[in-house]
From TrEMBL:
Entry similarity comment: Belongs to the SIMIBI class G3E GTPase family. ZNG1 subfamily.
Biological role stated in the UniProt entry: Zinc chaperone that directly transfers zinc cofactor to target proteins, thereby activating them. Zinc is transferred from the CXCC motif in the GTPase domain to the zinc binding site in target proteins in a process requiring GTP hydrolysis.
Pfam families for the chain: cobW, CobW_C
Protein name, per record: G3E family GTPase
SMART domains: CobW_C (SM00833)
InterPro entries attached to this UniProt entry: CobW-likC_sf, CobW-like_C, CobW/HypB/UreG_nucleotide-bd, P-loop_NTPase, Zinc-reg_GTPase_activator
Reaction(s) this enzyme catalyzes, per UniProt: GTP + H2O = GDP + phosphate + H(+)
Record-annotated CobW C-terminal domain positions: 257-351
Keyword hit for Nucleotide-binding: yes
SUPFAM superfamilies in UniProt: Hypothetical protein YjiA, C-terminal domain, P-loop containing nucleoside triphosphate hydrolases
């Protein structure tokens, strides 16, 4: 990794559908005796930030990135607020962004990858999603944002456990796992949780990808759902899309979120892998919410780690492979309408 992540100010993004318990969690974080100071950005119209009176206005600025994909949007207002915060460096130990219940976390996360100034001084630590145990199952059916929030999460609080039966709780947890098997999941009431389980997760740090995702190591290969070849107009970024940009014109609420992962013990050829993955996220990026991988390249003594949000990829050599370590390449995609067989064949075709 090029830069020292630990010098950067950690940013935690809190998401969750309307009324799930985000504000309750935020108040808990702020009132626990941790001796830390957080800057809080509340991304909701009319709502006042708890610390520093920060408010991000209602009309968000959205601009199109060079590659023309409308889902790679970053919030200009968010960048401005963070820039303002950074000018008063030393005032706080972390930034917490509470997003509106209807927001997709991807554009917020992308802000920390694409804006140079922001990227130089902050690091996205984790996306924390609060899920309402009573209503999540219903929202997964009718609200694409709710599904995106679960799919994107690094940490999930399955909250309001007091409002459901144990059987219902197991059912909703299984639904969450079907969408996102990688996130850490905690059952909570009134968002009660040790903040050490929420903050400083390092989920977006390349060198901690494995620690945060033990399942990544254990499972050789799985694909959870059926796969199809259709492409829908919904990239899940929460913005209204011009249908001309996409092939499909049908309703998208039936689209399935899924995760697929593959591994191979054969070393990869970087000259095959990079063009493949770059082309993949350029074309399938709207459907791919998160991608992560640990790679073993032929004749390369170092592990290569990468991750992505939609079509933005970030990766670097991490550390030398240890002598007793299996040199395997593993890759995971979380998204919708992923063609698992096609992805797997593409990945395996990168073998050296
Ligand atoms: N029964 C029950 N109620 C809860 C629990 N956690 C939070 N609540 C209540 O649920 C309501 C919504 O909680 P908030 O923390 O405001 O939720 P939010 O996600 O910030 O809501 P929005 O900002 O409107 O999206 C409040 O009245 C909370 O007191 C819980 O575990 N059980």
């Amino acid at each position: 990794m090029a830069d020292t992540q630990s010098d950067k100010i950690p940013v935690t993004v809190l998401t969750g559908y309307l009324g799930a318990g985000k504000t309750t969690l935020l108040n808990r974080i702020l009132s626990q005796p941790h001796g830390k100071k957080f800057a809080v950005i509340v991304n909701e119209f009319g709502e006042i930030g708890i610390d520093n009176d920060l408010v991000v206005g209602a009309d968000e600025e959205v601009f199109e990135m060079n590659n023309g994909c409308i889902c790679c949007t970053v919030r200009g207002d968010l960048i401005r607020v963070i820039d303002g915060l950074l000018r008063r460096k030393g005032d706080f130990d972390g930034i917490i962004i509470e997003t509106t219940g209807l927001a997709d976390p991807a554009p917020v996360a992308q802000t920390f990858f694409v804006d140079e100034e922001v990227q130089a001084k902050t690091r996205l630590d984790a996306v924390v999603t609060v899920a309402d145990a009573k209503w999540l199952s219903d929202r997964l059916k009718d609200a694409p944002e709710a599904k995106n929030q679960v799919a994107f999460a690094d940490v999930i609080l399955l909250n309001k456990t007091d409002l459901v039966t144990p059987a219902e709780l197991n059912e909703v947890e299984a639904r969450i796992r079907g969408i996102n098997p990688y996130a850490k999941l905690y059952r909570t009431q009134k968002s009660e949780i040790d903040i050490a389980k929420v903050l400083n997760q390092g989920a977006f740090d390349l060198d901690r990808i494995l620690e945060i995702e033990p399942a990544f190591l254990e499972e050789d290969e799985h694909d959870h759902h059926h796969h199809d070849h259709e492409h829908g107009p919904d990239c899940g970024c929460g913005h209204d899309h011009d249908h001309e940009h996409h092939h499909g014109l049908h309703a998208v609420h039936d689209s399935e979120m899924q995760s697929v992962s593959f591994s191979t013990d054969k070393p990869l050829n970087p000259e095959k892998f990079f063009p493949w993955v770059q082309q993949l996220v350029a074309t399938e990026g709207p459907n791919i919410l998160r991608s992560k991988g640990i790679l073993s390249f032929k004749d390369d003594p170092d592990r290569f780690v990468f991750q992505g949000v939609h079509m933005i990829l970030d990766g670097d050599h991490q550390r030398p492979w240890k002598a007793d370590e299996t040199r395997a390449s593993r890759i995971v995609f979380i998204g919708r309408k992923l063609d698992a067989e096609w992805l797997k064949n593409g990945f395996l075709s990168c073998e050296a």
